[in-house]
Amino acid sequence: MILRLDRLAVDLPKPKNPSPNDAAAVQELLGGKFGEMSTLMNYTFQSFNFRGREAYRPYYDLIANIAAEEFGHIEAVTYTINMLLTGTTPRGDDPTTAPLQDAANWRNTYHTIATGQQAYCGDSMGNFWTGQNVFSSGNLKLDLLHNFFLEVGARANKIRVYEMTKDPCARAMLGYLLVRGGVHVVAYAKALEKLSGVAVGGLLPIPDISNKRFPEARKHEDKGLHRILYRFSPDDYRKIVEVWNGPHPEDGQPLEVQDGPPEGFKPPDLEEEPQLTAPGGPDDGPDPAMLKEYADRIFGTSAKVSMNAGAPKKVPAKKR
Ligand code: MN
Ligand code: MN
């Protein structure tokens, strides 16, 4: 079972320039082959499918525990996309334009047509995430190798998205996840080392650039976040400490298990996007006749219902 906390793992600043194309790029980190949906679901299914749990308890604990952290990562990436999409459509009632006219030129129109300027469970090119991205072979060494590859592939994608956007919101998320993904890279490398004796950590970093080169990642590493593995459970997964120990392969600092999740931050309250339900523009609101009909069905025909019920907040109209 999962215990859920209404906290966001990383503090996300408001985007400087909300951008649907930046949001589209970030989608890859959510629902792409190497995105957070893939890490979450791979480790989740591998832990459910694990045979020989008692014999290989430290590896089971590691995979199951990292799965729990990945839930918070899909949340952080999703909020980033939502914040990058907030305010990207005009909020006036200019009769010469359609409310969502600009969105017709966005690279990704699912962000308006299929959603309410929201993230969707798919990649940067509009392909929906699929269970075919889940690898669970029943062979522990093979699954750990896969997970190591998945985490370094995810790292490569994050670095490329970092190079596609200068937005502080996107880069705050990227910096944090480069560090946390880096922990998972090292965790799977350590697991393979314990299982096989091969010094997998010697391959790192992949790609060949240190997290310390990214200011938004370095600030977390300066606080030691790259050497902390959170134990996401009140009582369980205690044997992760048998894998997560010794020196960090890149800077030699001691690895440490921290009991409990990170403290996190209050999730941002996403503003309404009123034009999404108002065909004629944001001031029109929902059709009063339609609202009356629904109210009659729910409360009976005698009900008195304000025609403004549920209407979006008024925004200052542009001069015509
Ligand atoms: Mn992750
Ligand atoms: Mn990860």
Global outline: elongated
Question: How many beta-strand elements?
Answer: 2
Structural class: mainly alpha
Q: Hey, roughly how much beta strand do the residues contain?
A: under 5%
Q: Report helical residue fraction.
A: 40-55%
Query: What value does the average pLDDT take?
Result: 91
CATH superfamily, by name, is Ferritin, core subunit, four-helix bundle
Round the Cα radius of gyration to an integer and report it.
Answer: 23 Å
- Domain count, please report it: 1
Q: Which small compounds were modeled alongside the protein?
A: manganese (II) ion
Q: N- to C-terminal separation?
A: 57 Å
Helix and strand pattern = HHHHHHEEH
And the CATH topology? Ferritin
Counting copies of identical and different chains, the oligomeric state is: single chain
The assigned CATH architecture is Up-down Bundle
Low-confidence stretches: 307-311
What is the count of DSSP helices, taking H or I runs of 4+ residues? Answer: 7
The largest pleated sheet is described as: 2 strands, parallel
The level-1 CATH class: Mainly Alpha
